[in-house]
Structure formats: C-alpha cells, structure tokens
Design goal:
It is a single chain. This protein is an alpha+beta fold and 523 residues long. The protein folds into 4 domains: 176 residues, Beta Polymerase, domain 2 (2-Layer Sandwich); 76 residues, Hydrophobic Seed Protein, CATH 1.10.110; 175 residues, no CATH class; 53 residues, no CATH class. It is built from 24 helices and 14 strands. An 8-stranded mixed sheet has the order 1-10-9-2-3-6-5-4. Strands 7-8 form a two-stranded antiparallel sheet. A hairpin with a 5-residue loop joins strand 13 and strand 14. Helix 1 crosses helix 3 and helix 8 packs antiparallel against helix 11. The chain is elongated, with a radius of gyration of 29 Å. The protein starts with 23 loop residues before the first strand and ends with a helix. It is an enzyme of class 2 (transferase). It comes from Ornithinimicrobium ciconiae. Pfam families: HD, PolyA_pol, PolyA_pol_RNAbd.
Length: 523
C-alpha cells in the first residue's frame, strides 16, 4: 500500500467530538464536505466515495429502511477501510442499534434471502441484488480470559461498538442513510500514515481476542501497515495467549497472510514477536548460528527470499498452459516457505569447515506433514506441500543434462499435477549472488523443461500408463485381481518409464518374461 503521510494532532485533521453524531458528511453533490481536512485525508475520502459509488444506492436504501423503523445503521469495518484503499469488498458489514429479531423484521420484503449467521452474537446475513450483507447488533463484548470465545453483551451506541474492534483502521464507520463518516479513533489518519494500532490499549485488545495478534501480522502482509511500538510490545509479551485460539482460526489467518502482497513482512513480524514459535516454530528454528569457521547461507533469510521469488514466478490470471500456477497460490507459497525446515535437524559440520544437510528434504517432508496437519490444513494441501518439499532437491541430480529420458519421465511422473509448482519452487530455490552460477542454473533448468516438452509431445508424458491395462494383464497371465496383479502393473509402469513406448507386443513379452521369474508362476 502506498499512501500519502499524515500526522495526528494539531490543526488540519478531521474534527471529532465526544458526541456519537460527530463526523463528516459525504455529499454526492459536491464530492466531500470536511471539517478542516488535511489534503491527504480529503484525497482518501474522495477515493472512498468513488469506490463506494456502485453500492451507494443500496447503502442509502437499506439505511433508510432502518431509519424509518427507528434504528441506527452504519457501514463498518473492512468495507470502509477498503474503500479508502481503493479496494473492493465482496461482502458488506453493517452494525445497528436493532436487535436480531428487529433486523429480520426490517429486512423482510427487501432481502431475497436471509440467514442466521450467529444470533447469539447478534449477526444476521442477507442477500439483495447480488450483494451479500451481514448486519450485527451493536456490541460491547466482555471476554473470559481463559476462554476462546467472547461473552456477548449487546451495546446501545456506535462509539462503544467501535472501541471493541481490533484496529483503528477497522474502527471507522459510515452512518446511513446520511453518509456521515464517523472516525472517533482516527483510523483514517493511521491509514494515511500506514500504521496499525488498536482503539483500546493493545494489551486489552489482544487479551480480549488473541487472534488479533495474527491479524496484525496479516495486515502487514495484505495492506503494508506497520505496527506501532505499543502493538509490537504487546504482541511480544502476549504471544503465549495465542495457545487458547483454535488451530483452524490460526490456520486461516496464516493462509491469508501468505496470500497477501508481502508475506515476508508479516512472517518477519511473527518471528520477531514470538508468534511464529506458537504457530510454525520450524520457521524461527531456521535462524541457525553461523560461526567464523563454518560459514553457510542464512537458512531463515534464504527461505523468505525463496518465498518472494516463488511469488514473482506465479502466473497472472488467465494464463494457460500445462504447468501454469496462477497466483496467489497457497500450495506454492507454503512449499517455498517450508522447503528447508529439515535443515536444522540434519546439519552436520564436516572436516575442512564445510556444512552438510544430507537428506534434509526427506526430514523436511515429514516435518511439513506434521505441522500442516497440526494446523488442520485439508488433506489435499498437506499432501501437495509435503510432496513438493520432498522433491525440491531432485533437479540437482540433473547436473548439466546427464539425465536419461527415463529419469526425465520419472521426474514428471513423480511430480504429477504438481509439476508446474515444482518448476517454480526449484527455480526460486536459487538465491546465489554469483551471477554466473545463477545464470547457469537457469539455463540448465530451461534445458530440462525443453526436454519435458519434447517428451510430452512424443509420448503424452502427462498420462504415462503401462501399455497393458489391469484387465489385459490379468488376461495375459491368467490371474485374478489382487496383490500379484498390482506388482505386475508396477513392473510394466517401470518399463514404460525406462524405455518409453515399446508397443503392445513388446510389453506383453516383457510381462511374460517377468512372470516367469515370479514364485506364483512356479506353483
């Protein structure tokens, strides 16, 4: 995010009083009407108005319905923040003085569909004209310090509702239907300055909901916001409290962080504050000690650089091809981040001052599987990321092109549908500052990809199968389905990979030759 700077305090900032009604009116006729605004805040408000233009009819119509029923309504949180940033929000979040049953009454006849998202938390969802809205009763949450969930207490005014929100940039509201901008915690100034702080003290905010510490790291990645010293100190001192949050919620925040524009910023914040020790401890463990006698690459910094380089290689939406990886891609980013986590456990100091990490890809794959499972990632994601970590060193056996066609076929077959990911991960894993070495590695991988393309064209490499299927194997050998048939199939697959297409007759002869040596054939 690149925004003009802005300062708090003194003249030139938006005026706010202690009255809930204070704020600035957003006028469609003149664009914006501000109270002594700074230029930067005026520009941000103008941008917000332009961003909200497509949905303004809905906002005023819905606000009018609540006003006519005697209730307050305000657009709040992410949609307001994103409007200032020129970003679109797929959903619209509102807060209201109305109770859940009153919300449903107002929506009756207007919403095409309504649903109960969490009545106990005061939230009702609705759909109208292609838009999804969530409307929540004013809240004044109280938290049990030993619980993962808030004890809900409904509030009676917008100011109290905003102070319980996670960060000031999410504590801005647009009162409806008048389009009055309400910003009691100067979130707009923080957004313009690129800083992230809390409406309440950071300690109270993070004690109320420890997941907010993960959100701070996520917003560093997604929005480029820098946490204040107070927020950083609170995160460092309260990192242990993250342990009461469910693995699923932590996982979701980590995924959003990784899918942001600058994951490195968020990950570095997690490591510096100790949050990473609670979420993915293998990452800070990569900060291996380097003494003057045993110099080697900083594995932690290397991993973050590999992640950045992998992101740079992601394909743009709409790209086509057998090995495209359209970004942002969670599997590729997780694999890039975790590809070397087996190094600390396998580090050995060799005679002469060298350092080795033999089989770190095998150890790393096991650690990756365990960590992703503990974070409750789905099976497909765990399997894919683990496989990429396991395969990320395979290319280094290619040398300067010594692999046979058989080895190339196995490389493609072992990667399967992840071949595009493996291409990008392998290329990203080169972080050498030696320009000649980097260029040599790139040329060598170019050569490997060219060979893969040639074999694909000749052999339909992506669908390599034995030249006899299971039924045909059973017919030739006169056997029934079972373990023996499975062994025969694997043998013919190995022949196919080693020799390429040999034709049905040759495949059948190879099968009979193999069968003659099997103990079952002797019985």
């Amino acid at each position: 995010m690149v925004l003009p700077s802005s300062r708090r305090g003194g003249g030139g900032h938006l005026a706010h009083s202690n009255e809930p009604e204070s704020g600035c009116v957003v006028s469609r006729a003149v664009g914006l009407s501000l109270v002594s605004p700074t230029v930067t805040e005026a520009e941000l408000l103008a941008q917000a108005l332009r961003q909200l233009e497509p949905v303004l009819p809905l906002l005023t119509e819905l606000g009018g319905r609540f006003q006519d029923a005697g209730h307050e309504l305000a657009l709040v949180g992410g949609p307001v923040r994103d409007a200032f940033l020129g970003r679109s929000s797929p959903d619209l979040d509102f807060t209201t003085s109305a109770a859940p049953e009153q919300i449903e009454a107002v929506l009756a006849g207007w919403a095409e569909q309504t649903w109960d998202i969490g009545r106990e938390f005061g939230t009702i969802g609705a759909r109208h004209g292609g838009w999804t809205v969530e409307i929540t009763t004013y809240r004044a949450d109280a938290y049990d310090p030993d619980s993962r969930k808030p004890v809900v207490a409904f509030g009676d005014n917008l100011r109290d509702d905003l102070v319980r929100r996670d960060f000031t940039v999410n504590a801005m509201a647009l009162r409806l239907p008048e389009l009055v901008f309400f910003d009691p915690h100067e979130g707009l100034a923080d957004l313009a300055a690129g800083t992230l702080t809390t409406p309440h003290t950071a300690e109270i905010s993070f004690s109320d909901d420890p997941l907010r510490m993960m959100r701070a790291a996520r917003f560093s990645s997604q929005l480029g916001l820098r946490v204040t010293d107070e927020v950083r100190t609170a995160m460092t001192g309260m990192a242990d409290r993250l342990s009461i949050v469910s693995a699923e919620r932590v996982r979701d925040e980590l995924s959003r962080l990784l899918l942001g524009a600058d994951p490195r910023a968020g990950l570095e914040l997690m490591v510096q504050t100790g949050l990473a020790d609670k979420v993915v401890p293998e990452l800070p463990a990569l900060q291996l000690e380097i003494d003057e006698h045993h110099r080697h690459k900083d594995v932690y910094q290397h991993s973050l650089t590999v992640l950045e380089q992998a992101i740079a290689l992601e394909d743009e939406p709409g790209a086509e091809g057998p090995d495209t990886v359209v970004g942002p891609d969670l599997v590729l980013r997780l694999a890039a981040l975790l590809h070397d986590i087996g190094k600390p456990a396998t580090r050995r100091f060799e005679k002469g001052g060298g350092v080795s990490f033999h089989h770190h890809e095998v150890v790393g794959a096991k650690l990756t599987r365990a960590r992703l499972r503990s974070l409750r990632y789905d099976k497909d994601t765990v399997k894919a990321v683990t496989r990429l970590v396991e395969l990320h060193l395979r290319f280094h056996g290619y040398g300067t092109g010594e692999w046979t066609d058989s080895a190339v076929r196995r490389y493609v077959t072992d990667a399967g549908p992840l071949l595009g990911h493996l291409h990008k991960l392998t290329r990203s894993d080169s972080t050498t500052r030696n320009r000649r070495k980097a260029e040599r590695l790139a040329r060598t991988y170019d050569d490997l990809e060219d060979r893969i393309a040639r074999l694909r064209a000749e052999e339909e490499l992506s669908a390599v199968r034995p030249e006899l299927n299971g039924n045909e194997i059973a017919e030739v050998l006169g056997i029934s389905p079972g373990p023996v048939l499975g062994r025969a199939y694997k043998h013919l697959l190995a022949v196919r990979l080693d020799q390429g297409p040999i034709g049905r007759e040759a495949a059948e002869a190879e099968l009979r030759s193999w069968w003659a040596e099997q103990p079952e054939a002797q019985g």
